[in-house]
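Re: weekly structure request thread

Next one in the queue (387 aa):
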Amino acid sequence: MPAINVAQPEFMEDEEISIFADAVGKFYDQHAPEKRVLEWRAAGQVEREFWNEAGSAGLLGVSVPEEYGGHGGDFRHDMVVIDQQAHHGVEGFAASLHNTIILPYLVRHGTEEQKKKYLPKLVTGDLVSAIAMTEPGVGSDLQSITTTALKDGNGYRINGAKTYISNGQTADFIIVVAKTDPNERAKGISLMLLETEGAEGFQRGKKLDKIGLDASDTSELFFDDVFVPAENVLGGEEGKGFYQLMGELPQERLIIAMQSMTGIEKALEVTLEFVKERKAFGQTIWDFQNTQFVLADLAARGTAARVFVNHCIAQHLEGKLDVPTACMAKHMVTELQGEVVDKCLQFHGGAGYINDYPIARMFRDSRITRIFGGSNEVMKMVIARSL
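Done, posted below.
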């Protein structure tokens, strides 16, 4: 029996979802075996062609409407892609970023022309996406960004620098968060759609050397008078960018909570397997009462977290998930994940400090979850305002 044994929620009791999950799992087994993932880790990024393979298999744009080349699914299908990826140990492939963070901006806020132009290519993997928010001096306080997109003839010129951009080395399509009115804060922000091929003045900086997520490329991006046509303002209207960003935050933070929840389950799974085999002082590590008590406590709290995450997913599927609740999920589950992987690593002893063991990579990879998508300090600020 798994350490966290919560009944499958009603919203997942669908034969079509089960069939899709099996297909996604088989795709990962066939196209992302351990040897290939090791190569990605060594290279610091996923092969570009893997995106096209995933697109051909139906893993991209699963919830994009069929009229725009998508598969007409819903958030549950996106969940399956994320969950199967985690359980099959496929590191680096930013499907959650592409499917559940970036594509929804176009689906929900794009003009008809923008949807028809970009969504089909994003579904096939011909375009890989990124979103450029963070700047060298600006993190969670997006209203303080300094990157500008100022009018020039029939378009805009983007100037500025971004950093910590996931898919930065790979992306062909970037949503750039910029000020179209530098004198305003929230009302001055617009989201600019940029295709990188042939974009004069656009430059990718170095691939950043992170403490975790080895197979995921994260980069600096530079914009020097990069021209984008007027029709590339998301939604076709200036000054809506901040509100478009805020509208997507509940889903983004729920996604992080979901990924961390799967991480908790995986950490407990590999640790239970290890402690029941590893011996010390004539007995298994599991036989020590301390091991049982610590893992029992983590399993109990993990079970409560899973129930809460499932509740949030159900709320989101009904369009009822509010920002404070999403922040609670992101804060609570990522903090618990940090504690779980730390205590699970300790049970591995010296092996836990060796990257060949999954728990070591989980320890490194999980640290970012308390930072990205809004730091957990920001999560607490948002929660406090709702009390």
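The first strand starts at residue 129 and ends at 132. The chain has eleven helices and nine strands.
Next request, please.
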